[in-house]
Amino acid sequence: MASPPADVTGRISAVLRALSGFPQRGASTTEIARASGLARPTAHRLLSALDEHGYVDRDRASGRWFLGPELYLLGEVAAQRYDVTEQARAGVRRLAEATGESAFFSAHRGGETVCLLREDGDFPIRSFVLYEGARFPLGVVSAGLVVLAMLPDAEVDAYLGRTDLAAEWGEAHDEAAVRERIASTRRSGYSVNPGLVVEGSWGMAAAVFDRHGRPSWAFTITGIESRFRASRRPHLGTLLLKEAHQLTKQIQSGGGKGLTAPLAP
């Protein structure tokens, strides 16, 4: 369970972030309380207040909560400045077509990556670790690993110093193991997640950089272990890096709606 934020703004943010993890079926008050680290009465009080203003919406039949229409309207306005998904969509599609795997585009937001786009290739067996709206801490899944690896050393040290990934994600995510994967990612330019979140489900990712040279997004491909053999990984990595470089170049040349670091800390 997450640590509860101390301030009201932090609590509201925690509730909305938690709710975003249930995009299709919505969430119960208990699920939101658990995901946000808040007491159930506190979570219910905040959800009820947000409901009054349209920021969340409650299904009166099931009692489950969903993100509300006001967030959609605000998002439409914010997208004019911050959205690069339209530029990324073609790259995601090309990766899915070229590899046969599921391809994704994720954004760096604070200490997390958030999946924004998904496109499935023609290989019949899918990996379902990632989906649109899924959030993972930096250092977890290939997108979170490549973003973390491309941050300056001081930021990596600060993040790992305050974050215990192993407590939630297992010993494979202790600090020493994560640092080893960071070093490997920096050498190759792309990250590899060898089934550390779901056994047998592999992923690879390459970072996309904003106009300040910060890793603000990532392209990812995922699939079953047999599709990520050592002999194939360099080819997959090259495809990822090609798309990441192309989008980075577009953003840095002004083709990304003038974006700087929209979703980074």
Automatic annotation (TrEMBL):
Species in which this protein is naturally found: Saccharopolyspora griseoalba
InterPro entries in UniProt: GAF-like_dom_sf (IPR029016), HTH_MetabolicPath_Reg (IPR050707), Tscrpt_reg_IclR_C (IPR014757), Tscrpt_reg_IclR_N (IPR005471), WH-like_DNA-bd_sf (IPR036388), WH_DNA-bd_sf (IPR036390)
PANTHER family for the chain: HELIX-TURN-HELIX TRANSCRIPTIONAL REGULATOR, ICLR FAMILY, TRANSCRIPTIONAL REGULATORY PROTEIN
Gene3D superfamilies: 3.30.450.40, Winged helix-like DNA-binding domain superfamily/Winged helix DNA-binding domain (1.10.10.10)
Keywords noted in UniProt: DNA-binding, Transcription, Transcription regulation
Residue ranges annotated for the IclR-ED domain, each copy included: 70-253
PROSITE patterns: HTH_ICLR, ICLR_ED
The keyword DNA-binding belongs to this UniProt entry's keyword annotation: yes
Record-given protein name: IclR family transcriptional regulator
Top-level lineage group: Bacteria
